[in-house]
Every structure is written in C-alpha cells, then in structure tokens.
Amino acid sequence: MLLYDFDSYILPDSNVLRQNGVPELNIVKGFRRVPKTFFYTPIQFKEIVEKVKQMGFSPERFTFILAVTVLASEGRIKALMDFLVNVMGFKASFVAKQPYLLGLSLEKRIVPRGLFVKDLISKGLLAKVSGLTTLFASSEKVFLQRFVYCYEEKASELLKLYNEKLNLAAGEKLKTPKL
C-alpha cells in the first residue's frame, strides 16, 4: 500500500466513485476492507466502474464496491452470472442484488448445489427455489437437512447424487458425510 501514491491512485479512484453516486461511507468501508481496489490507474478504474454499472449493480449499495473489487477477476463474475442466469434460470437483476454470492466458491458450493437442486426439481421433489440464501449461503449441514435428509425414503440416493455433483465440480476432491 505504501508503494502507491495517494494523489495518483487513491484520490482519483475515490472521486470516480463519488461522481458515480457511491456514498462516502461505502467508499471508506471499501478502502478499509479491500484497499487494493483503489490501486488501479484512474483510466482502468473508470472502465471497471462503468462495467459494474452496466451489470446492474446499484452505486448506492456496498455491493457496488464489492463488484468493483471482484471485477479484477472478471472471468469469475462472468462464470457466476452465466451459471446462475443461463443454467439455473435466475434473472440477472435478481442475482446482482445478492452480494454474498461473490464470496462463495463456484466450484465447491454454487455449481454442485445448483445442479443438485436442478435435479430435485426435474424429479418433481422440489417445486422451485424461492431464494438463493438457503441454497448457497447456508452451511453444509443445513443444506443437507433442507434438500437431502428431508426426503428420508430417497436420502441415500440423493446424497449419492449430491456427492456426484460435488465431486464433478471439485475434481473428485470433496465428499459429504454418509448417512
């Protein structure tokens, strides 16, 4: 952090955020949490901010700062949006309002759980997914109770199916506890 000039990077990047309607509190909070966000050249930073706005993130919410931070790994955001919108069928605007998704592993959590629940829906065991929090933000134990163990007569079959999805996404490295 000491290698970067305040007047050349941090101040201009902060001004870009202000000009785009980001509240001062969110700018300060963003700098405290992830200072590296403010170390882009002003030209690069403006481009990132524009991309985040085009993705539908609201400058008034802290998720805007998080999206700017994560956009340096732009491929990850595209993969996340592609999976949740094109594979799972959620609306992009709905996904953009779920900031916690940016911190979750695509390979270890989002893809295996998403594909598993999609299978539950196709088998008629689940009508639809009402929210993303229960599906993705819950602990492994809560997820298994909510989507696997509750179907007692099919629990071992479903646990096997979930393990297949988990291992496929993680390259055969992860396993869930057996019944």
UniProtKB/TrEMBL annotation:
Gene3D superfamilies per UniProt? Transcription termination factor 3, mitochondrial (1.25.70.10)
InterPro entries xrefs: MTERF, MTERF_sf
Q: Which GO terms describe its molecular function?
A: nucleic acid binding
Keywords on record: Transcription, Transcription regulation, Transcription termination, Transit peptide
Single GO BP term: DNA-templated transcription termination
For this chain, the family text in UniProt reads: Belongs to the mTERF family.
Q: What is this protein called?
A: Uncharacterized protein
Native species:
Gossypium laxum
Q: What is the lineage of its organism?
A: Eukaryota, Viridiplantae, Streptophyta, Embryophyta, Tracheophyta
